[in-house]
Amino acid sequence: MKIAVAGTGYVGLVTGVCLAEKGFSVSCVDIEERKVDLMRSGISPIFEPGLEELMIKNRKKLNFTTNYKEAYKDADVIFIGVGTPEKHDGSANLNYVYSAATEIAESIEKDCVVVVKSTVPVGTNDKIEELIKSNLAHNVKVHLASNPEFLAQGTALKDTLNPSRIVIGVEDSIAGEILQEVYKGFDAPVLVTNRKSAEMIKYASNDFLALKISFINEIANLCEIIGADIDDVALGMGYDNRIGNRFLNAGIGYGGSCFPKDTKALHWLANFHDNELKTIKAAIDVNENQKIKLIKKSRKYFNSLKGLNVAVLGLTFKPGTDDLREAPSLVNIPIMLEDGANIKAWDPVGMKNFQKKYPEGVTYCFTIEETLKDADLCFIFTEWDEVKEFGLSKYRQLMRNPIILDGRNCYDLTSAKKANIIYDSMGRETINSVKGSLV
Ligand code: UDX
């Protein structure tokens, strides 16, 4: 079976490489010559642990090209894995999906299955099918399937090679059979449903996880007020397997390329159909507020950040990625700059991307020590292992004022007490500080 993949972002490239790992010959198509050259030389254009190793291992089965006509013309299965970024009104921008579909229609010379992996609003698959059918250059049959992707950045290979489930949304049996053949070598439950349900499974899953995070964040905020401990609360809740213990980590809100976009897109879609998704709206609102929670906390210690040395640990939206999309750092650092803080920032992989956005006003450091030196206040935005493993006593030694505002609960409270630092985290007791006191 010959496979082609449109797009070499997270979804497209990971899909292509994992299918090659499972034994298929895969042509990965991208419009950018520069990216294709990189991939041909074994370099991944995205940061994803293990991806380059797998690209190199499977190089004989992988072809990277800008020549979509060549790649699509005799493919049996073509995956569409291009981006669907958020538009200003919260809806999904489908231009990349539609242009990939048009290119496929112009190129295919034999019957094939076109599989939409990109996250697209419910009903889009039908439009893609119409678009392909009306632009076909040859007299061939196209079977369209929705096959949403559930990978998370940082664990994309594991999530794709050992998926929690394989969802196949089809309107005809041929597409269903061929896709089940493709996934024969994967050990996961397969759900075959209609296309609209498959599209909805993706949105409902992401939005449910976003809701779970916003819920635990609200509970964490209340825990702080009433003196409960969110870690114990989440642990106690998680023992109930109807709730589950995952995605109950309180923090400064979710970011990334999916949850913010997919919550807004589903909310937009419901509105468009004169419907309101109140729970999703609440998840979005809670998240916006949560992102500035640490800045609000800082006002307990300082009236303003003007002239203060501020250390920032972590810039990416989560560890294991260099991605800054919707990261809390992007909301907080502009506020700090406006306040007049002297900012030093560290991130093991996200610094280069951040520096492109903020070339001035922030001093970028290569070590945590350098970042903390003489700081009056430290903000932790990402729970990198390097941060979690960094001894708390060193904060006291290095900082002018050892006040740590931890947005990701990287440390346990007993260690913080021993380290004699002011440690203010999410949904837990503040250590070594008189509540409401100003320094
Ligand atoms: C997510 C989904 O997990 C994945 O299934 C989907 O295909 C794409 O969207 P991703 O955005 O890569 O993946 O990261 P994820 O690990 O889910 O984290 C998203 C955000 O939620 C991060 O900012 C993370 O810090 C935050 N988060 C996650 C929490 O705040 N608490 C948690 O308990 C879990």
TrEMBL record:
Pathway per the UniProt entry: Nucleotide-sugar biosynthesis; UDP-alpha-D-glucuronate biosynthesis; UDP-alpha-D-glucuronate from UDP-alpha-D-glucose: step 1/1
Active-site residues annotated for this sequence: C258 (nucleophile)
Domain of life of the source: Bacteria
Positions of the UDP-glucose/GDP-mannose dehydrogenase C-terminal domain: 311-413
Keyword annotations: NAD, Oxidoreductase
Record GO biological process: polysaccharide biosynthetic process; UDP-glucuronate biosynthetic process
Record's catalysed reaction(s): UDP-alpha-D-glucose + 2 NAD(+) + H2O = UDP-alpha-D-glucuronate + 2 NADH + 3 H(+)
Chain sites annotated for binding NAD(+): D30, K35, T84, T119, K261, R325
GO MF assignments: NAD binding; UDP-glucose 6-dehydrogenase activity
InterPro entries: 6-PGluconate_DH-like_C_sf (IPR008927), NAD(P)-bd_dom_sf (IPR036291), UDP-Glc/GDP-Man (IPR017476), UDP-Glc/GDP-Man_DH_C (IPR014027), UDP-Glc/GDP-Man_DH_C_sf (IPR036220), UDP-Glc/GDP-Man_DH_dimer (IPR014026), UDP-Glc/GDP-Man_DH_N (IPR001732), UDPglc_DH_bac (IPR028357)
Enzyme Commission code: 1.1.1.22
EC supergroup of this enzyme: oxidoreductase
Gene3D superfamilies cross-referenced by the UniProt entry: Cytochrome c1, transmembrane anchor, C-terminal (1.20.5.100), NAD(P)-binding Rossmann-like Domain (3.40.50.720)
Positions with a binding annotation for substrate: K202, F247, L248, N249, A250, G251, G255, K318
PANTHER family membership: UDP-GLUCOSE 6-DEHYDROGENASE TUAD, UDP-GLUCOSE 6-DEHYDROGENASE YWQF
Similarity annotation: Belongs to the UDP-glucose/GDP-mannose dehydrogenase family.
Protein name according to UniProt: UDP-glucose 6-dehydrogenase
Organism: Neobacillus massiliamazoniensis
Classification lineage: Bacteria, Bacillati, Bacillota, Bacilli, Bacillales
